[in-house]
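Entry 14. Structure prediction run on the chain below.
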Amino acid sequence: MKKDVTFNIDSDVYEKYCLALTLSRDERNDAIETYMRTYIAKSFERVSQEYNPKTSKPISSGDFFGKAEQRIPIWALKPDQYNHKIIRAYFTAVDMAGEATITMMEQLCSDKNNPELYVPTFKNNYSQMKIDSSKSHGKVFEDNGDKVWIWSEVENTLMKYKSNFYNEED
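Output returned:
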């Protein structure tokens, strides 16, 4: 379902936005929706890191350690699952460019014509794969805002199942 949205922005920002659309040849609504999804994902990630419920026992970072460690073998067998596709996109990006970036992975996962990698909610799912908490998918990745790498705590397990996610011949 689509929803009409109206908002006011600075005229200079709007002019530059229109110029950027012309240069990128992106559709206006698609670009705005992409920016909104990015904003949502970043906001959820920031809030989830700030969230600290009142409990009788303090939560240590190790309480949820290794959630992905247990899930990677399951994800390896489910190629239609978004986590599987995002891990596959990571290995595809590394194979193509020698390293993975968030931008590359998002581009790979945004191609509707490639169902093996298509994840319509990439940012949300990717951000869930960067935190190890009770409500996350399980931490698999770390990044510096651009470059992405496998979290060292799950690297051995992920590499053990790499061929289920990605084969160099693909």
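Residues 11-50 form one domain.
Filed with the rest of this week's runs.
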